[in-house]
């Protein structure tokens, strides 16, 4: 629907001659969290990179808020309000936490613009590291910083690729709490996650990819009614 935050319609993607996405379609409802699941190599990150414009789709359409974005450059997609926190969390290692956030700031017409102070309210852990160089942070702290950097761009759609990967359990809790708060504030979110149970604590809708195509999709209620139909496409249950 035109009112959806993000729509993929029959999206194909290639790495050179290797055909990796085979007509992926999905809709992210406004203010909802869509969990994008699938085994290693299923095409989750490729889908996220393609939405963000870092891989050009070789077929299909992608629109945000009813406007086509698939022909735009990555910077223009970010400016349009679609922000990716890539797998492996990219921060500037030699800049401090404050500096990383400051350089990411971009004004957009949103109801409550993001400030550094708001990022620190969301992730109090990060505030204690304000003057520390990002390269010396723990993995979990870098993940919070990477999310904070995306938020400083005042997005409407946030794409999170495995934010819990490799984090100590306590920091996973803080990151998950932060994501839940962003959802409560009305951000539309696609969350790629290996941990099915963790994904289900946050998800409104679920899409499972298998070898670059949508194997099954549904609402969280449909997943709860028949979890095996969904987990049969995943490595872990
Ligand atoms: N830069 C690349 N060049 C060529 N093939 C790639 C490249 N990146 C990924 N692929 C291939 O594309 C397919 C999808 O990879 P992708 O990274 O999207 O999977 P994923 O679902 O994110 O997996 P993971 O859970 O391991 O992160 C895999 O077969 C992978 O080997
Ligand atoms: Mg991936």
Helix-strand layout with pairing:
Blueprint: E1 6-15, E2 18-28, E3 33-37, H1 44-51, E4 59-64, E5 67-68, H2 74-79, E6 82-85, H3 97-104, H4 116-122, H5 124-127, H6 139-151, E7 157-161, H7 169-184, E8 188-192, H8 196-202, E9 205-210, E10 213-219, H9 220-225, H10 227-231
Helix pairs in contact: 3-6
The structure holds adenosine-5'-triphosphate (ATP) and magnesium ion.
How would you describe the overall organization of this protein?
- It is a single chain.
- The chain is of the alpha/beta class.
- The chain has a domain at 6-89 and 155-231: P-loop containing nucleotide triphosphate hydrolases (Rossmann fold).
- Helices cover 34% and strands 26% of the residues.
- The protein has ten helices and ten strands.
- The strands form two sheets. A six-stranded mixed β-sheet has the order 6-7-8-3-9-10, sandwiched between helices.
- A hairpin with a 2-residue loop joins strand 4 (59-64) and strand 5 (67-68).
- It binds adenosine-5'-triphosphate and magnesium ion (MG).
- Magnesium ion binds at residues 44-45, 87, 161.
Could you estimate the helical fraction of the residues in percent?
A: 25-40%
Structural class: alpha/beta
H and E string: EEEHEEHEHHHHEHEHEEHH
DSSP, total strands: 10
DSSP summary: helix tally: 10
What is the CATH topology assignment of the domain at 6-89 and 155-231? Rossmann fold
In short:
The protein is an alpha/beta fold. The protein is 34% helix and 26% strand.
Descriptors:
alpha/beta; Rossmann fold; six-stranded mixed beta sheet; four-stranded antiparallel beta sheet; 10 helices; 26% strand; binds adenosine-5'-triphosphate; binds magnesium ion; ABC transporter ATP-binding protein; ABC_transporter-like_ATP-bd; ABC_transporter-like_CS; membrane
